[in-house]
Sequence to fold (671 residues):
Amino acid sequence: MNTLKRVFESPAVLTLIHYRVVVILIATLFLSVSLVPGLTEFRTLSLSLDRTATLGVVAVGLTVVLLMGKLDLSVGSTLALSGIATIGLQDQLGPFGAAVAGIVVGVLAGVLNGFLVVTLQINSLVATLASMIFLRALCHFLTDSNPISGDDPLFGLTVSRALGGTFSLRTYVFLIAILLLFIWLTYTVAGRRLYAVGSNEHAATASGIRSNRYLFGAFVFSGFTAGAAGVMQSLATNTGSPAFGEATALTAIAAVVIGGTRLEGGRGSALGTLGGVLVLAAITTTLEYESVPTYYQNIVTGSILLLLILLDRIASNSPRSALSLNSLLSFGKRDETPTEKKQEGKVP
Amino acid sequence: MKHVLRLGTLTAVGALALTGCGNDGNGNGAESAEGLEICYVAAAESHAYASPANAAFQEAAEEHGVHVTLLSQEFDAQTGTDQLRTCIGRNPDGIVLWPLDPQAYIPGLVEAQDADIPVVLINSPMDEDAEGLYTSFTGPDTYEQGVMAAEVMHEELGGEGQIVIIAGQAGNGTTIGRTDGFNNMLEELGSEIEVLQTVNADFDQQRALELSRDLISRHGDALDGVYANDDTMARGFVDAWTESGRELDDMPAIVGINGQQDAFAGIEEGYYTATIVQSPEEDGRLALETIVSAATGEEVDTRIPIPLTVVTQENVADEEPAF
Fold:
């Protein structure tokens, strides 16, 4: 036991655990490059990033929601609905107007979620589960369950085609979104308040932060990014389909969590999310290039997710966590760690 | 370890089987095909129809010495559009695409054309907008299947009666082909068969069962025939029929498509009128052979249908079920 403890407390191991996202990312990339010939070619890199951009933009919005300790399951349905608006309204509004309408649809979906969670005080899991089902049904209703297509299949190619031999437009949108999120969370007062609200809503309210506004804003932001992702996705395929985005919400949440954001709220970062998205992209590209069946990819993704969460628990070492280093080492002994009482906030 | 061994054995057996096939001839053009890189975007990995089609595709590829990268969309067109672009990024000698949406792959097809990569569509059709963007479409002619089903039904009912149609998903290319072909052919034959109702059971047995309960309680014994877009849904109707306490012998004429094993059994027992065999092995093999021809610069037709066989009580003993 003591040797184990010493290993875990050695500076090298602690550093590794601290930078676990980077370590996993480097390990995945290293494996990818050594397994797949030609993966380092710029064209392959550019295409892999392009593929992941839609998911990445959704993950940017989800990072903020998860930071607040909430969930948004409705992002996939929002993505589909705004895609349908983007394609379906092209005749009335023109392609650019319709794209704006798609984003507005996303924002409105976010407002709906904010209203349910903040105003009606419904648990975010349940509220966004409901809006997920509702918006998905709306997609099927509006399209009569058939995919709809735009007039000009070439218009959307600008979104997904590499610009001047570099990356595609949507890749740039994703990278800029990450950069903006990084600046917002790290260098602005509003960003730091997000962490405060996410760590302890009542304490934040008590110290003069309007927590509810931040929560509402987080859902609107998540709707906005899901809407933007829907616009890009539908333009790239020239199709608005009620079936789009069915796996998006869970994959995006996985990416954000792999990136070190905690579901309990209060911890997470933009660069972590970038790392999480890249890890998933590297896994998908590598295994697809090797013709590995999809369910193996899911096994790898699931395992990495679990591993990172365990490492996170070990690293955080908080007495509250059932999986802190101390509690792991004293497994079987009587639990001596004092249980903290959850602060049920009566605001003074 | 055990799995590795088993896999090894399987590969060995497969290789033996292949050498056997190779000796039957069929090796024409194989020399120039040697070493080609083919990217195959399949509908799914584990599915009653897709799995044998994929396996036959791979098998034919090995015979030709072609290397295949298989990507599975898992019935998600969104994933598929991305995978198509990944394929293009690999710059293969040819791409085989199983379209799950009549439109969404068009931008990808444009890119493939720009990159000078031939594309063959397997199994399912795409919209007219996609015409000219792919080299060839192999697979069953779903419209023709509907036509054949109408002929069988017309003959079985002696040209008059009341039937219902259990169709697949609304808007799906296969559903449209099989239903339109059927209705148009009835009209062409001058048939007095009346279609009482058409329902969409999404190629799903359970859903077909539920819808059939309603159909049976509404139309009951007035029904003379049932045309289902596939055998799975026809099975749903058969189950609903027996569930309602009716006899198998009083069953309306049932016509399905796909040539599934249980449809064959039903035909043998006499309560199932006909099915149309569409072989997934043929489907997979034909797509591979077409893309190999296209990639080696041979001329290929833009439409290469797989052979279809109507199976009734007369020939059920001589035909093999598709799966």
Remarks:
- Chain A is about 70% helix and 0% strand.
